[in-house]
Design brief:
mainly beta; Ig_E-set; Gal_Oxase/kelch_b-propeller; Methylamine Dehydrogenase, Chain H; 525 residues; binds 2-acetamido-2-deoxy-beta-D-glucopyranose; 6-stranded antiparallel β-sheet; Gal_Oxidase_central_sf; single chain; 5% helix; Immunoglobulin-like; 7-stranded mixed β-sheet; signal; 4 helices
């Protein structure tokens, strides 16, 4: 249960296309990535992770699994008569990890956060919703601070419904939509205004789609949510998906079922991403990708008979910008359940963690898949996937992974600067639709070509799904050569709040497929 923290150097060292790999120096093991152990143990399990805009990562697990391996500071204890495991608990179930110093400190959660969800508000505060038992109606907030004093603040009974295995998405107007959860066929909103006034609670809105997609194993938990450029939500549960207008509680469109009748959501946990939104080619096209999962009977087979079925090797890609899209299926080199899918700064997708047999759920996974796989969305169809080097440790149920500002992937369970561009200045605030410039350096001996400027929203990751993750490739107007190795790129802020809801994003300059050595935090508003 206790997590070691690992990093994989992934995005930093991948030549993007064959053309560029010839003009760039090649590195030993360039395709392998490299694993680095940060901490043999952080005392808790990194079941849920969120990167904040001060380069600290909030991690937490659950309170009802006995003591963790990290004491609360100053002899503090948690007294919780309704906890299922410990009424008095002097250990932590949450930490704040500092990327820069590779240190962490204990945080205090009072009520049970098991299998909950979250999103970051435009002001940079993490809002976490629900959990289990006495935590299932709780909203918690964590606001980043510059000293060592910030901690969780809990708002009991603030959720209208119990939210256990729900998914969240930040919306263009700064509210958060909270969808589903176990036996919850509905959604509700978090709004800061309502939160502050005790008199008005947001209501609940029925969503029959969640009832239609329930099967005996409840393979529709942690539904995949993606906010689309047209302002609607894409919701995927089990094998089905809809285009949903949350403002009017209306299903706009039902998409075809993903081929194969195998479920993709918890406990048959596959994963999903919204592929990068590119503002440079006229209309912004939105494509959804769903990878991995387990056969329909997988969970019951594991629970009832201790038999661990082979997992799915298929991915489906759906062009939701198309009037009548169909799933285009592809085969991963390795079958996997509980794989995390993350967008890397150069637009590639990494699929990492998980198992080759079984499903999600306690002790239901077998045959850990230690090798991450890279998917290159715009490569020729037979050259999209490749396999990276194996992790020293298996990462099964309750592992998570997030992208860090320096392009590395942190696995809950390394500095790199070869020829990566370096951003030397960028605005702290980026306005929707407005021009701004980014200056950066590229070593003199390289010809500058294929420059792009991208923003990535940090994800709330749990149970193989990274909520709120999105990348926008900004519209590039011009690149000018300033001095020997300094350039400036003029770009346009994301055109709408539907394409990029307000809030903090990591901005990267990508040169010939290689992202800048550090992503810079910008606030989109
Ligand atoms: C954490 O684990 C170590 C090694 O097993 C042990 O010595 C230590 O007492 C544990 N700490 C807590 C707070 O459980
Ligand atoms: C997605 O559909 C749109 C609208 O039909 C089309 O313009 C675009 O080329 C499609 N994208 C891909 C990758 O197929």
């Amino acid at each position: 249960m206790i997590a070691a923290l690992f990093l994989i150097l992934a995005s930093s060292i991948l030549p993007f296309t064959l053309v560029f790999s010839q003009t760039l120096p090649t590195y030993p093991g360039a395709r392998d990535g490299e694993w680095e152990l940060l901490h043999a143990s952080v005392g808790i399990s990194a079941m849920h992770m969120q990167l904040l805009n001060n380069n600290k990562v909030v991690m937490f697990d659950r309170t009802d699994f006995g003591p963790s391996n990290l004491s609360l500071p100053d002899g503090r204890c948690r007294y919780d008569p309704s906890d299922n495991a410990l009424k008095v608990d002097c250990t932590a179930h949450s930490i704040l990890y500092d990327i820069g110093t590779n240190t962490f400190r204990a945080l205090t959660v009072q009520t049970d956060t098991w299998c909950s969800s979250g999103a970051v508000l435009p002001d940079g505060s993490l809002i976490q919703t629900g959990g289990y038992n006495d935590g299932d109606h709780v909203i918690r907030s964590f606001t980043p601070c510059t000293d060592e004093n910030c901690d969780w603040i809990e708002f009991p009974r603030h959720l209208t419904e119990r939210r256990w295995y729900a998914s969240n998405q930040i919306l263009p107007d700064g509210r958060i939509i909270i969808v589903g959860g176990r036996r919850q066929f509905n959604y509700e909103f978090y709004s800061q205004i309502q939160q502050d006034s005790t008199s008005s609670y947001p209501g609940t809105f029925r969503l029959n789609f969640l009832l239609q997609t329930v099967d005996p194993s409840e393979n529709n938990l942690y539904p995949f949510l993606h906010l689309l450029p047209d302002g609607n939500l894409f919701i995927f549960a089990n094998t089905q998906s809809i285009l949903f207008d949350y403002r009017h509680n209306r299903v706009v469109k039902e998409f075809p079922r993903i081929p194969g009748d195998d479920p993709r959501n918890y406990p048959s946990s596959g994963s999903s991403v919204l592929l990068p939104l590119n503002e440079n080619n006229g209309n912004v096209v939105a494509e959804i990708m769903v990878c991995g999962g387990a056969p329909r009977e997988g969970f019951l087979q594991a629970m009832q008979f201790g038999s661990f079925t082979h997992t799915l090797s298929t991915c489906g890609r759906l062009n939701v910008s198309d009037e009548n899209p169909n799933w285009v299926m592809e085969d991963m080199p390795i079958a996997r359940v509980m794989g995390d899918m993350l967008l890397l700064p150069n637009g590639d997708v990494i699929i990492i963690n998980g198992a080759g047999r079984g499903t999600a759920g306690w002790e239901n996974g077998r045959d850990p898949v230690r090798e991450p796989v890279i998917y290159r969305p715009s490569a020729a169809s037979d050259q999209r996937f490749y396999v990276m080097s194996a992790s020293p440790k298996p990462r099964l149920y309750h592992s998570s992974a997030i992208l860090l500002p320096d392009g590395r992937v942190l696995v809950g369970a390394a500095g790199y600067s070869l020829i990566r561009p370096v951003i030397t200045s960028v605005n702290e605030v980026v306005s929707h639709g407005e021009f701004f410039t980014v200056t950066f350096t590229v070593p003199e001996y390289l010809t500058v070509e294929a420059i792009s400027v991208r923003i990535i929203a940090p994800s709330f990751t749990t149970h193989a799904f990274s909520m709120n993750q999105r990348m926008v490739v900004l519209r590039l107007i011009a690149v000018s050569h300033l001095t020997k190795c300094t350039y400036s790129a003029t770009v346009v802020g994301p055109s709408t709040a539907e394409i990029a809801p307000p809030g903090y994003y990591m901005l990267f300059v990508v040169h010939a497929g290689i992202p800048s050595s550090a992503g810079m935090w910008v606030k989109v508003q």
